[in-house]
Amino acid sequence: MGDSYDNALAETINGLYKAEVIHRQSWQSREAVELATLAWVDWFNHRRLLEPIGNVPPAEAEAAYYRQLNEPAMPA
């Protein structure tokens, strides 16, 4: 079950998407919007540098996180 933080995050991302993609031009077709959306989502997850996580893309940070979870623990 979601909480208010989930809703706030969803609204923030939706607003960012609309500002950066939808409202920047007049769209000729639904297909054009779909292709622009796919390109934006790809950029947002794989190329956007996010300062709070070390200026790396979110997908790269997530992959590093799961790699370290799978590494064997070092003996003390």
From TrEMBL:
A Pfam family per the record: rve_3
Annotated Integrase catalytic domain residues: 2-58
Recorded hits in InterPro entries, A to Z, give: Integrase_cat-core (IPR001584), RNaseH-like_sf (IPR012337)
Q: Out of the domains of life, which is the source?
A: Bacteria
Q: Which GO terms describe its biological process?
A: DNA integration
Identification of the protein by name: Transposase
